[in-house]
Amino acid sequence: MADLSPVKGPESSPSAVSPPHPPPAQSLSLVQPSTKKKRKAVKVFRLFRSVFRSFPIMTPAACKFPSLPGGNLPDTRSAVGNRITGTLFGYRKGRVSLSIQETSGTLPALVVELAMLTNVLQKEMSLGLVRIALECEKQAEKEKIKLLEEPLWTMYCNGKKIGYGVKRDATEEDLHVMEVLKAVSMGAGVLPGRSEVDGPEGEMAYIRAHFEHIVGSKDSETLYMLSPDGNNGPELSIFFVRI
């Protein structure tokens, strides 16, 4: 596993070189996400809520996915959920971030910086199966905090604990990426990023797809990537759980 320890920034000194500037500001055409609550299929929700609560990742010991190599996690993709746009993006040797949007034309509803390097995620995706679990602890004073508003997550990838994911506000660079990809509904590729300064390592890699967003309970939500290739494409699932 690659070294995921934080990289120290440049020391303050007269000879220190300033970091590359982010892309020039541009007018954004992204709009605010809808505040309308979609109707829930109550019977279906109740049926699958018990399934979500039986997920192995719902307990600390099971967060190691002991049965993961056999792919024995329940398949709940037949449950009723909302389709959203998800984008994984980052510089090749930088940390990858996850952006969740209602549609590709709306502002991000959630941005999480993951504890994984972009090139490591690309290698995992090439193997065909990636399951990311983002786990946080229940605390009495946080009863009113929605699950996806939690600020810090312990992150597991394919059963291995690799660090922490951090929720953050969308930066100017994040918004620039979402604006550039506005017309892209599904796909993977690279954006120029800082390539003029850093060469190929300064390219911004991205993976964008539709995800099925399923709410199991107030402490369990799941994103399933919908592959345009059906069962032939890579399988990516992201689990948000509070235990």
Automatic annotation (TrEMBL):
One Pfam family of this chain: DUF617
Region (Disordered) residue spans: 1-34
Superkingdom of origin: Eukaryota
The protein's name: Protein MIZU-KUSSEI 1
Species for this entry: Forsythia ovata
